[in-house]
Amino acid sequence: MRAPPTLHLNYLSLAEYESARWRDVLGVATFNGSVASGPPVPGPAGIPMAHVRTPVLPAAKNVCEVWRCGEPAHSGEHGRVRFRRSGEMLFGCIAIPETDSARASSDENGRSPLQHATAQAYRQIFATLAAENYPHLLRVWNYLPAINRDEHGSERYWQFNRARQQALRACGRAHQGTVPAASALGSPLAGPLVVYFLAGRTAPTFLENPRQVSAYHYPRQYGSHRPAFSRATLARHGTGLALFISGTASIVGHRSLHLGDAAAQTRETVANIEALLAQANRAARGARFELSALACKVYVRRPADLPLVQAELDAALGGNARVIYLQADICRQDLLVEIEAAAMYPCAA
Ligand code: 3EB
Q1: Residues annotated as catalytic (active site), given as ranges
Q2: Which residues of the chain register pLDDT less than 70?
Q3: Separation of 315 CA from ligand 1 center, angstroms?
Q4: Which of 60, 115, 200, 224 is the most buried (most CB within 10 A)?
Q5: Tens digit of each residue's pLDDT (9 = 90 or more) over 60-88
Q6: What domain count does the chain have?
Q7: Does a structural domain hold residue 228?
């Protein structure tokens, strides 16, 4: 009997990806961005590829994040969104250069080019989900050029939060509670805003971290518009369960901890991820998600911190964990490390 289709995630080199079979690939994100800017280039069979320019650590390697669904998938386009879908899930990506909108200056409504780009990306994503009938966003990755830069009177991450929240409201979506898991990281200034995502036909379970204030309830000191994401989501796929853990950092309550200390920030982040795994195991009766079985993407602000961060994670996760490291700026200036993770459990109870 054929195994029922389930979701898979692999981190591959470009060479491994090219020789991999692609029939059941849902989508790919490439890191290191030697690729020119512009709309995402489709891979073989029109596979959507999000080209993210954040450098891979330690060296200038290429890494591909490959999402597979275990069954034949079908490609399409909607506006600037390239997508590929299987029976239950849709992967999509969109890249919007800020130069496309009101170049370098704010418009009459005071919206910056980044806010225009964010609004456009999210509106097109929701239009795609409506057209293809995968109404539920499960997981979103956002890569913003120069995320920490002050421009047009505020930090760019704050501008992004404002535009994301406004787009959610405009599209009739929740902006707290039932919001997808997400990451929001910096990328090199020259590139476009890149957003990629997974969506499903049924709503996921939304998880929060008891050690942290929900991001959508952060006090105003972190921006006038709160970040619209859940700490994790848990989605059924075939007979399995997929756990998507949002970008997680050294935040307890709403405060950043261990300023200047990348090793201590890494340990606090792992404690936050463990708390989320406990929540997931409580919600997914019968499944057992474990630290050592996670696929982790680790964002390090200062490349010189890599050995410290790596040593902490090797100790916490064990040698067999799937981990990739990227250099990226993190949304708060005082955060040096952020970790996102995914795990698939083959059999739901
Ligand atoms: C934090 O916990 C760190 O704005 O979508 C992590 C994951 C963070 C997602 C987002 C931001 C986002 O607040 C930053």
Answers
A1: 338
A2: 1-4, 17-20, 33-41, 60, 100-108, 348-349
A3: 25
A4: 115
A5: 677 899 999 999 999 999 999 999 999 99
A6: 1
A7: yes
In SS3 terms, the chain reads as CCCCCCCEEEEECHHHHHHCCCCCEEEEEEECCCCCCCCCCCCHHHCCEEEECCCEECCCCCEEEEEECCCCCEEEEECCEEEEECCCEEEEEEEECHHHCCCCCCCCCCCCHHHHHHHHHHHHHHHHHHHHCCCEEEEEEEEEECCCCEECCEEHHHHHHHHHHHHHHHCCCCCCCCCCEEEEEEECCCCCEEEEEEEECCCCEEECCCCECCHHHCCHHHCCCCCCCECEEEEEECCEEEEEEEEECCEEECEECCCCCHHHHHHHHHHHHHHHHHHHHHHCCCCCCCHHHCEEEEEECCHHHHHHHHHHHHHHHCCCCEEEEEECCECCCCCCEEEEEEEEECCCC
pLDDT tens digits, 237-295: 988 999 999 999 999 999 999 999 999 999 999 999 999 999 999 999 888 999 999 99
Residue 81 lies in a domain: yes
Q: What is the pLDDT of residue 36?
A: 46
Closest ligand 1 atom to Cα of 222:
13
Residue 3, in any domain of the structure: no
Residue nearest to atom 9 of ligand 1 (CA): 183
Distance 103 CA to ligand 1 centre (A): 27
Range of the domain at 300: 8-346
Q: CATH number of the domain at 169, please.
A: 3.30.1330.40
Pocket-forming residues, ligand 1, beta carbon under 6 Å: 142, 182-184, 215, 227, 229, 246-247, 249, 251, 331
Supply the pLDDT for residue 32.
82
Does residue 1 sit within a domain? Answer: no
Among protein residues, the one whose CA lies closest to atom 14 of ligand 1: 331
Ligand 1 pocket test, pick from 229, 331, 337, 340 with the greatest ligand atom count within 8 Å of Cβ, gives 331
What's the predicted TM-score (pTM) here? 0.94
pLDDT at 60: 62
